[in-house]
Amino acid sequence: MIELEGLTKRYGEKVAVNNLSFAVRPGMVTGFLGPNGAGKSTTMRMILGLDRPTAGDVRIDGTHYDRLKDPLTYIGALLDAKAVHGGRSAFNHLLCLAQSNGIPRARVHEVLDTVGLTPVARKKAKGFSLGMGQRLGIAGALLGDPRILMFDEPVNGLDPEGIHWIRTLMKSLAAQGRTVFVSSHLMSEMALTADHLVVIGQGRLLADTSMADFIQRNSRAYVRVRTPQPEQLSDVLAAAGITVVRTGDGAFEVDGGKAEHIGELAARHQVVLHELSPQQASLEEAFMRLTAESVEYHAHSGSGATGGDAPAARSWGEGWKGEG
Ligand SMILES: Nc1ncnc2c1ncn2[C@@H]1O[C@H](COP(=O)(O)OP(=O)(O)OP(=O)(O)O)[C@@H](O)[C@H]1O
């Protein structure tokens, strides 16, 4: 278990991590989600004792990282896959790590096998592709057979096969009862991988919720209807007890209604329809609304999901906290 309590990091005027408190629990994959610059990497560096908090505290199974004996056997991390001595072979890189942490040589062979790098184990890391580098970084994280694993954006730049492999690995590590903490800025990726979600924006906690709850709250199903006779359709639906929401482009959104039912009502009252389409709100949109206020650099498109809806975003964030 990883526990953060009021964790804060300032760089001069900049508050990179702002009073974060949450726990990362064993037996599940916890997704750590936030837009670019939200403070995910800084938080992970503080967990590993690589950055000193300005305030607050973080513990790994109740202990500070720098007081752990043989830390690689408690927590393994992939923070930056490029942080490997390029002149060393994959085998020698892992062997150095193993020897300086009291880990037997045989374990090097095991983790190379787990990540599928055995055939290239004697090749120099500088010749590795991005995907091979990620695999080597993950092998390093697994080396001490730790109960806690932490990955910072592990699927960045990987091809679909590599992404699938990492996803499956994280799930299987969690299924073994381990604590798996993985950062991403992609909601769609987390929806496929994580059991629990911690969302931050500008260093602050926005949500701490189960993935199932997030999906249930945000998978809004509705029917989109367009008609050249909006007043008539509105009256017909109201008479049937169906309330509609008018969208900016003149269409209607009907919550909880069936497309067939709406189509039949319209036909019965001779209302012409130009569109009748069932819709499902995307989780990516929900994430963008939640973090809208805290995105560091906006593209000003005028109508993007990152543009408005700040009050809704704030209230959703409040509602989610602590519901895990
Ligand atoms: N050493 C530093 N000195 C000054 N500012 C820093 C430093 N490290 C990070 N920051 C700032 O702190 C904020 C959080 O950065 P961090 O890298 O933790 O975010 P992130 O969520 O990991 O982002 P990304 O998804 O882009 O990697 C950013 O505004 C960043 O510019």
TrEMBL record:
The protein's name in its UniProt record: ABC transporter ATP-binding protein
Keywords tagged on the record: ATP-binding, Nucleotide-binding, Transport
SMART domains according to UniProt: AAA (SM00382)
GO molecular function: ATP binding
Occurrences of domain ABC transporter (ranges): 2-227
Ranges for region Disordered: 299-324
UniProt family annotation: Belongs to the ABC transporter superfamily.
Gene3D superfamilies on file: P-loop containing nucleotide triphosphate hydrolases
PANTHER family according to UniProt: ABC TRANSPORTER, ATP-BINDING PROTEIN
Signal peptide: none
